[in-house]
Design brief:
3-stranded mixed beta sheet; alpha/beta; 28% strand; Spore Coat Polysaccharide Biosynthesis Protein SpsA, Chain A; homodimer; 356 residues
Chain lengths: 356, 356
C-alpha cells in the first residue's frame, strides 16, 4: 500500500518577519541548517530502502509560490507527482479534501500523509519510523495523527491526549486541547499521556472522504467542484478560482479531527521537532556561535538573526529578539514573539507592502 | 583685532558607531538637522554683519580626512584660510601650538578661536554673541573658555567653576572638575557657578605660546619643529610626519588650562549646545516623529537611528539604542552608551576593520 506525501506549503505567517514575508514565507527561506524547511521536508520524504512505500511528493500551495516551489524542488533533484495550486488560502480542511481528490484518481487504495512544509525535524529517521508504525492503524480505518513528545510546558501548541491502545503502536484520541495555560501544560508534561499536535496526518483516501462528508459536507463538495473545474498543465493543477474561493475556510483539526470517532494517535515521538513558529523557537534551534555571528557583549538570552552581509552587535541587553533582513530590522522583547503581526499592521498603514 | 577660527576635525570616537566610523567620523556625517556637524560649524563661523571680525576658517585635521574636508567645504561655499594636516592624532595641546604657529605667521596680534567641529549648537547667534563678549577679556591677556549653561546633572562632562569677575562679562576660573558623580552634578546644577566645559577657547597667539612654554615646553618645541619641517601645497599644510609623531599626546585642558593663571570663563551660555557624544545625546536632539521613521509599538524611551533605506521596528522594548548603518546594527542598553568601544574591540579581534 503506497503512501502519498502531500506537502502543504501555501502558508505565510507574520511571526518570523522580517525574514519570512508574504513574498517568501519561512518554509522557502534558508533559516535552519542552511536549507529551506520546504526542501528539508521534501528530502525527509524521499524514497529510500527503509521499508516505507512512498510515492513522489504531492505539493499543495498558493499559486503565487509556484516559482519558488519549482526552483527549490529542482535543487532537491526530486520530481513531484503533482503540484496543486490554490488561488487563495482556505486553511487545511479543504486541503485534505483536494488531496483526496487527487490521490483517488491515482490510487483509490492509497494512504495520504498530509503535513506542513514549515516544520523542522532534526531526526528524520525517527519520524519515518513513526510513519511506518502508523501504516497498519491507518489501513485499519483510522485517521492517524502524530504526537510529538513534549520537552517543555509549551503554552503555544495544541495537545493530544492518548486514550485506549489500538493494536501495538497507536492509541485512540481521548481529546484535543488547544494552547493550555502554564499550570495545565505542566501537568501534561508529566502525565505521559499528552503529546504535541504537529498537524501531521496519515489516512486512507476513502476514509477521509467519508469523514468530510459526515462533518464538513460543504467543504467536501466545494473541493470536488473546484477540482472538477481545475485546469492542468503537465503535473501542475490550477484549482478553479471562483469555486475554490467560495469554500469555507476551516482547519482540518477543527472540521474533522475534533469530531471523528476514527481518530488515532501514534507517539509520543521524539524526533527533534519544532514548528519554528516564533523567533524564540527559531533561536532554540541554533547551535554554537559562529565566527561570523553576532557580537554579544554582556548580553543574556537573546535570539539574533541577520543576513550574511550584516553584522549585529548587542551590548548589555536581555531577552530580546533581533532580526535583520533585507532593509528591515526587528527588535522585540522575547515575550512579545506572538505579536509581530502588530508590526505588519503598522507597515500596512504606511503602505510599505514592499517590506512584508 | 581679527579672530581666527581654528576648527578641529581630526577626531574619530567610537561611541556613535556604527554611523560614526574611523573612515567617516561623526563630524562629517549628516546626523543632526540634515547637515554634517563640520559644515554646521564652518557656517556658524562665517563672516557676517554682526560685529564679529572673523577671518576665514583654519581647518586642522588628520590627513586622511582631506577629501571629506574639501568636499564638505565646497558645499558650504566658504574658502578656508588654510587646512593644516596632522599625520596622526596627538590630542589638542599640540593643536593649539600648531594653530599658534600658523596664525603668528599671518597676524601676530590675532586671536585664535579654537573649537571642535563635532558639536551641535542650536542657537548659533547666541554662540557668536558669547564670542563677541569674550574678545575684550582675551585681548587683555586671558585664555577664555566658554561655559555652557547646564540643563541637567550630566555626569559625563567636565565642569568649570567660575571665580571672581573679570570685566563685565567674564570670570576667573576657580577650578575644573571632570565627570562628577550624580550627587555632585546635582549641586553644580543648582549653585549657578558651574558650567559645562565645551572645549572652546579664545586666546591671543602670543599668550598661548607663553603658556605652552611655561607648562608644556616640549609640546611647544615639538610643534615648532614639525611646523618648520612641514610641506605646503597651496593652502594645505602637511605637518612633518616624524617630528609630529614624536610629540607628546595631551589635551589642551590638561596641559594648559588646569595650570594657567590666565584662564577666564565666559558664560554660562545658553545656546542649545550638545557634544552629540553618545547615542542618547544624539537622541535628545531629535524632534518629532517622521512618517519614514521607525515603527515603535509599546516601546519606551528608545533612541533609534537608521539609514534611509532601512526600516526599524521595535516591539515591547525600553531604554534601548538601536542604530543601523551600512551593514551593521547596534542594539544597546542606553546605560551602556559609553561602552561602544567594547564592540569596536570585538570587531578588531575578528579582523572586521571594514566595519569601524
Amino acid at each position: 500500500m503506497t503512501i502519498y506525501p502531500v506537502i502543504m506549503c501555501g502558508g505565510s505567517g507574520t511571526r518570523l518577519w522580517p525574514v519570512s514575508t508574504s513574498r517568501t514565507p519561512k518554509q522557502f527561506v534558508n533559516m535552519v541548517s542552511g536549507e529551506s524547511l520546504f526542501r528539508q521536508t521534501v528530502r525527509r520524504l524521499a524514497q529510500a530502502d527503509d521499508g516505507l512505500s512512498l510515492a513522489d511528493p504531492v505539493i499543495i500551495s498558493n499559486a503565487r509560490y509556484l516559482d519558488l516551489i519549482e526552483e527549490q524542488l529542482a535543487e532537491t533533484g526530486i520530481t513531484p507527482l503533482a503540484i496543486l495550486l490554490e488561488p487563495c488560502a482556505r486553511n487545511t480542511a479543504v486541503v485534505a479534501a483536494i488531496a483526496a481528490e487527487f490521490v483517488k484518481g491515482v490510487d483509490p487504495e492509497g494512504l495520504i500523509l498530509l503535513l506542513p512544509a514549515d516544520h523542522f525535524i532534526g531526526m528524520p529517521d525517527a519520524f519515518r519510523k513513526a510513519v511506518g508504525a502508523a501504516v497498519e492503524t491507518a489501513k485499519s480505518g483510522h485517521i492517524v495523527t502524530f504526537g510529538i513528545s513534549p520537552d517543555r510546558p509549551e503554552t503555544g501548541y495544541g495537545y493530544i491526549k492518548a486514550g485506549e491502545p489500538i493494536g501495538t503502536s497507536a492509541y485512540s484520541v481521548a481529546s484535543f486541547r488547544e494552547k493550555p495555560d502554564q499550570a495545565t501544560a505542566m501537568t501534561y508534561l508529566s502525565d505521559g499521556k499528552h503529546s504535541w499536535n504537529a498537524g501531521i496526518f496519515l489516512f486512507p483516501v476513502g476514509l477521509i472522504q467519508a469523514e468530510l462528508r459526515a462533518y464538513a459536507p460543504d467543504i467536501l463538495e466545494g473541493a470536488k467542484a473546484a477540482w472538477k473545474a481545475s485546469s492542468t498543465r503537465e503535473t501542475i493543477v490550477y484549482l478553479d478560482e471562483a469555486l475554490f474561493s467560495a469554500i469555507r475556510s476551516m482547519s482540518f483539526d477543527y472540521a474533522v479531527m475534533e469530531k471523528t470517532q476514527k481518530g488515532a494517535v501514534v507517539g509520543p515521538i521524539s524526533c527533534a521537532w519544532s514548528d519554528v513558529g516564533t523567533w524564540p523557537a527559531w533561536g532554540g534551534l541554533q547551535t554554537g556561535e559562529l565566527a561570523s555571528g553576532p557580537i554579544l557583549i554582556d548580553t543574556k538570552n537573546c535570539t539574533v538573526h541577520a543576513d550574511d552581509d550584516t553584522l549585529v552587535a548587542a551590548l548589555g541587553v536581555e531577552d530580546l529578539v533581533i532580526a535583520v533582513h533585507d532593509g528591515a530590522v526587528l527588535v522585540m522583547q522575547k515575550s512579545r514573539a506572538q505579536d509581530v503581526s502588530l508590526v505588519i499592521e503598522a507597515l500596512k498603514a504606511r503602505g510599505r507592502s514592499d517590506l512584508f
